[in-house]
Amino acid sequence: MKTSIPKFEQLPKSQGRHQLDLTIAGMSTPIYWQVGQSSQPQPCAAVTAMVHGDEFEGFVAAMEIWKWANTIELHGSLMVIPVCNPAAAMDATRHTPDRFDGLNLARTFPGSSQGSFTEQLAHAIWNLIRETDVLIDLHSGGVGYDYARLAGYYRDQDAQLSALFPKALVWSVPPTPGVLSYEFSRLHDKISLGWECGGEARLDRKGAEDYATGIKRVLTQTGVAHGTRKRKPQFSNRCVGHTQSQVINSDGWFLPLTTVGATVEQGQIIGQWICPDLARREIVSQYSGTVIALRTLPRVQAGDYLILLAETN
Ligand SMILES: [Zn+2]
To answer: Are 204 and 105 contained in the same domain?
Structure first.
């Protein structure tokens, strides 16, 4: 049965908490969201988190923005969706659980009204946010990885805006079909930002706080939130250039000997490897660069990446 999914302009405009009762593939899947709107609807921003259900920094930051949005004067409107994939969030898994369809919501946008559970969920979220002007989609390293703070953007003119995320490396996100921020960036005249920080199956509290600070700055800078003065972006952040990931082609355990933010050289030992038969060897880096993501969950399966390195300046 086709799910009737409202678009943003059809949603109630009162400030506060709202529930959208979606039934997707026969499952009740409520999406909680919060909107605040001034006398004018535009500009409109959306903040999304927990597209992956094991990423807690964006969730906590979105909950902070949710609270903050009730205390400020808006010039436009704001939609906050702290949990985009409730099924994955309940199990604290990256993907939608297998009993639904096991898909990665972050490779499924813009989704389909006739598709599987995750495809219909993507379609619902997409309809909610596609009419907005600004999107900030919050991610993290989840259970498996530790991530550097990455302030991702798509259009060159949005780099300075993304740099309002404190202490982040500014990152031109590579096009990846199905990613919410990428698909949004392909619509006409949209500001689309995708941010990363933390992970390791825990909550990086400082990262979550700085996410919230960055979001408040972006909402002020784009005219969604009232600010006494617009912050002039000071582009002092380092930038991420070309990135390389090192993938492992067997199962085993990886014990890293480097950390996020470190600089490694090609040929440098980056960790120890333990095979299923308990044989040990060292893993050396195939590339040189700054570590922007590192596998910190030791159990690794063939095809996983161990490290993500970037040229930085
Ligand atoms: Zn994610």
So the answer is: yes
Q: Which residues fall within 8 angstroms of residue 224, CB to CB, at 6 or more apart? A: 43, 44, 45, 74, 75, 76, 77, 78, 134
Distance between CA atoms of residues 19 and 248, nearest Å: 43
Residues of the chain scoring pLDDT < 70 = 1-9, 33-39, 228-236
Measured in Å, residue 222 CA sits from the centre of ligand 1 at: 24
Co-location of 92 and 186 in the same domain: yes
CA angle 309, 152, 128 (to 5 degrees): 135
**Could you count the other beta carbons within 10 Å of the beta carbon of residue 71?**
7
**Whole-prediction pTM:** 0.92
The whole-angstrom separation of Cα 20 and Cα 28 is: 10
User: Residues 137, 119: contact at Cβ < 8 Å?
Assistant: no
Distance CA 204, CA 200 (A): 9
Residues 60, 80: contact at Cβ < 8 Å? no
The tokens for 41 are: 């609807």
What distance in angstroms lies between residue 73's CA and the mean position of ligand 1's atoms?
A: 30
Residues 167 and 304 in one domain: no
Beta carbons of 33 and 46 less than 8 angstroms apart = no
Distance, CA 235 to ligand 1 centroid (Å)? 26
118 and 215 in one domain? yes
